[in-house]
Specification:
Two copies of one chain form a homodimer.
Chain A (H helix, E strand, L loop, with lengths): L1 E6 L8 H13 L3 E7 L1 H7 L6 E5 L11 H7 L4 H10 L5 E4 L3 H12 L9 E3 L1 E3 L5 E5 L9 H18 L6 E5 L10 H12 L4 E6 L11 E3 L2 H26 L3 H9 L1 H10 L8 E4 L5 E3 L6 H16 L2 H13 L2
Parallel strand pairs in A: 1-2, 1-4, 2-3, 4-12, 7-10, 8-9, 8-10
Antiparallel strand pairs in A: 5-11, 6-7, 11-12
Helix pairs in contact in A: 1-11, 4-5, 6-7, 6-12
Chain lengths: ~325, ~325
C-alpha cells in the first residue's frame, strides 16, 4: 500500500476540491492510502468515507499570498501543509501533495525534508504539455533566482531520472534554455553550464534550445535558472491565454465567426485537452529528501486527483532512491 | 527632406524585398530621400527609378549567420550594412535601416555611431503587438546578456521618449519584467532596479509586470535585461506559433472543423492583422548616437516599407535630441 500525505486546506478551492479529488483518487487507485491534513469538520463535509483515508486534524492554513513562509514555519508548525510534509519526514507517508502556496512548499520541503546530500539547490519542476500532448520537463521554474552552472547539472540529472521513470523515455534528451542555438550563446553561467552538460556521461545533452523551439524540439528535459524558467513558463501561458481570448472575442463579433466557432468547438476542445496542465496534476519539488508534489493553486478535483496519481507513481517508481544514487555518482566523479 | 540610409542587401529575401519595400515607401512618403547601399546591378533589377533614390555601390554582404561581426567590421568595412551606418555617422543621412543580422547591427551601431554619452549599454527595442493591435515597447530584447540595475533606468528613460514621440502616449507607464507582481521579487538586480525606477522623476513607474500579464496590463514600456527580454519575446512567439499550428492541424482533421475554419477565416485574419509584427517594421537599436532600425531578417517588401516609415518618423520627431537631453538630465541629477 502506498501512503500519501495530502494537504486538504491549500489551494484556491480548498478544502472542497481537494477532498473531492481524494474521493476520485481513492476510487481509482486501490493501492493507495491517504492521510489527509486539515480541518476535520470541513473535510468530513465532502469526504466519501473510506477505510483508506485517515484525517489528521490541523488548525492553521498557510495563506496563498504568504509573504514569509520561513517565519510561518518557525512560529507555528500546525499548518496543514507543513504537517503533511513532516509526515513524510517521520516516515509515515511515501509522498506528499499540496495545492498551497509554491514558496511555502519550497520552504517546507527544504527545511523539513532537507536537501539531498550533494545537491546545492532545490528546483520547481513542472511538466509542460505541448499541443500534441507530449510533456517536457522544465526546471528550475522558480525556486531560485540566483544560480551556478553546476546547479543546472544537478537539475539535469534528476529530471532525466524523472523522464526515464515516469515518462518511460529511454535516453532523455536534455536541452539548455538559451537565446541562441549555437554553443557560446548566453550568459557566462550558461556557457559554463553548456560545457558541464556536454561533458557529463549521465546526461544525454541535446544542446541549446531557444524558447521558440521549446515546444517543437526533440528534447525531454529543459534546464535553466529559476528566474528564466519562470519567465519562460509564464510568457508561454500568457501568450496562449491572450491568443485564446482574441479568438473568443472574434467568435462573438460576427454571426459567421460564431457559426465557425460552433463547428470548431470539438477542434478547440481537442487542443485544450492535449495541452491541459490539469492532466499533469502538479510540479515536483526536486532536490529534497522526499517526494513533494505541488499541485496548481487553482486545482479542481480532477487536477488534484491527477496530483495524487503523480505522487503515487513517483513513490511506486521509488524515484528517491534512484535520485540519491545518481546525485552521489555525480558528485563522486 | 528626410534622408534615410538603407541596407539593400541584409535579410533573408534581399535585395528583392528590400528594394521593393523602398519602391513602396518612396511612393507613399514624398518627404523622404533614400540612399540605398548594395550591389548596384542587383538593386537596379528591382528598383523603380526615382530622383529620390540614390544607389551607393558596395561589394560585401554581412552573412545572416555572421559569428564575429566585430572582426568583420574591422577587417572589411565595405559591407552594405556598415557603409549605411557610416553614412549616418558622416552626417549624410538622418537614420538607417537594415534587415541584416541583429548582432551586426548592434556592433555596427555601437562601434560606428558610438554610444550616447552617459549610456553604458545599447539595447534592442522591439514593439510587441498584443491581439488588440496595441503596441508595447520591450527592451533590452537581446543586445546585452549581463546587466546592472542602472542600465534598466537608462532604457526606461529612452523608451519613454519613444513612447511619447512615436506612439503619442502622454505619460507612458514603465513596467519591470519580473517573476512576481509584489516589490521585492526577482534577482538582486531586479530589486535594485525597482527602487531606481520607482524613485526617478523622469519615469512613470508602474511596478513589476509578470510575463503572463504582459499583454493585458496597462503598461507602455517593459524593461529587463537582454537575456530575459529575448527569452520573453521568443517564448511568446513560440507559443503563438505552436497554438496556430495546432489549430491548423485540427482544422484539417475533420470536415466539420474545416467548415468551421472557413467560416472563421476572417476572424483569424483579423487577429493576425492586429498582432502582425510586420506592421511595426523593425526594432530600434537604442543607446547609440543615431537612429538605427533593425527590420526582421525575414522581412518582405511590406514589412520593410514599414521599417522605412518607422525610421522616417523617428527622424521627423528628432528623437535623438530628446534622448540626449533626457540622458544628460538623468546622469546629472
Amino acid at each position: 500500500m502506498i501512503r500519501l500525505a495530502v494537504d486538504a486546506m491549500g489551494g484556491d478551492h480548498a478544502p472542497i476540491e481537494m477532498v473531492k479529488g481524494v474521493n476520485l483518487a481513492i476510487e481509482k487507485f486501490d493501492d493507495i492510502e491517504i492521510h489527509l491534513f486539515g480541518d476535520e469538520n470541513e473535510i468530513n463535509k465532502y469526504l466519501t468515507p473510506s477505510p483508506r483515508v485517515k484525517i489528521f486534524h490541523t488548525t492553521h492554513v498557510l495563506d496563498m499570498g504568504v509573504e514569509d513562509p520561513i517565519k510561518e514555519l518557525r512560529s507555528n508548525p500546525e499548518y496543514s501543509m507543513f504537517k503533511a510534509i513532516k509526515h513524510v519526514k517521520d516516515g509515515n507517508a511515501d509522498a506528499v501533495l499540496t495545492s498551497g502556496p509554491t514558496q511555502g512548499a519550497v520552504v517546507g520541503g527544504t527545511l523539513i525534508l532537507r536537501r539531498i546530500k550533494g545537491m546545492k539547490r532545490v528546483a520547481i519542476c513542472p511538466f509542460i504539455p505541448d499541443f500534441e500532448g507530449r510533456m517536457r520537463i522544465l526546471l528550475d521554474s522558480g525556486a531560485n533566482v540566483e544560480f551556478r552552472p553546476e546547479h543546472l547539472l544537478d537539475f539535469a540529472v534528476v529530471a532525466s531520472i524523472i523522464s526515464k521513470s515516469y515518462f518511460k523515455v529511454e535516453n532523455p534528451k536534455v536541452g539548455l534554455v538559451n537565446i541562441g542555438a549555437e554553443p557560446g550563446k548566453g550568459r557566462a553561467e550558461d556557457i559554463e553550464a553548456y560545457e558541464l552538460l556536454k561533458n557529463n556521461p549521465q546526461i544525454n545533452f541535446y544542446g541549446n534550445v531557444e524558447p521558440k523551439e521549446m515546444l517543437t524540439s526533440d528534447v525531454d528535459v529543459l534546464v535553466t535558472d529559476g528566474f528564466t524558467g519562470n519567465i519562460l513558463m509564464k510568457s508561454y501561458e500568457g501568450a496562449v491565454k491572450a491568443f485564446s481570448d482574441a479568438i473568443k472575442k472574434e467568435v462573438y463579433s460576427s454571426f459567421k465567426a460564431k457559426m465557425g466557432g460552433l463547428l470548431m468547438k470539438n477542434a478547440f476542445k481537442n487542443i485544450k485537452r492535449k495541452a491541459n496542465p490539469d492532466v499533469v496534476g502538479g510540479a515536483i519539488i526536486v532536490g529534497i529528501e522526499g517526494i513533494l508534489v505541488k499541485a496548481h493553486g487553482s486545482s479542481d478535483a480532477f487536477a488534484f486527483s491527477n496530483g495524487i496519481r503523480l505522487a503515487r507513481e513517483l513513490a511506486k517508481e521509488d524515484i528517491m532512491s534512484k535520485v540519491r544514487v545518481a546525485i552521489e555518482a555525480l558528485h563522486n566523479e
